[in-house]
Structures are given as C-alpha cells and as structure tokens.
Write a structure and sequence with these properties.
This is CBS domain-containing protein. This protein has about 90 residues and is of the alpha+beta class. It contains four helices and six strands, in the order αββααββαββ.
Length: about 90
C-alpha cells in the first residue's frame, strides 16, 4: 500500500502542481506544498504535513488584489460555483 505522501507526490508530478488543497467534507482545511512533500516522512499523515488553509477568493477578484494577497501567501484558491483553481505568484508573470 502506498503512503499518502507518495500519492500526493504522484498527483503533483503528473499534473505539474506545486501545491494541493486539502478538504474535509466541503470545507478547505489546508494545503500541501511540494516542499512539504519533500521534507515529509513516508508514513506522514496529511494533517502532519499540511499548512493552514489559504485565502479563498471569488473568480472575479482583480489581478492587483490577487498580487497583493500573494505577497504574504503561497497561493490563493479561486472559487466560483465550485473551486476553479489555485493561483500562485508564478501564474501572474
């Protein structure tokens, strides 16, 4: 059986993601960054490696407001009727 850390790393590599949001039910409870995966023990639990949730913004948030948030956050979740995606500073280049 594969560890959750291994499964997260596969999803990240196959999709060229640098982070994955973590949900519990319908609520976002955290985020796992690729660097967290690299530092984690193979048998680590998601709760042990995830960071607190990141800001969730509406899909019509102005680019300038997103850029301001990214000064203090690794990423933001964009939410429409459902989560649409994650924006990082690299996406604003």
């Amino acid at each position: 059986m594969y560890s959750i850390v291994f499964l997260f790393s596969i999803v990240m590599k196959e999709n060229d993601f640098s982070q994955l949001p973590v949900k519990k039910g319908e609520k976002f409870v955290g985020i796992v960054l690729s660097k967290d995966i690299g530092l984690a023990k193979n048998d680590a639990l998601v709760e042990e490696i995830m960071r607190p949730t990141i800001p969730i913004i509406p899909e019509d948030t102005p680019r300038e407001a997103v850029a301001e948030l990214l000064k203090s956050q690794n990423a933001v979740l964009v939410k429409g009727k459902q989560v649409e995606g994650i924006i990082t500073s690299a996406d604003l280049l």
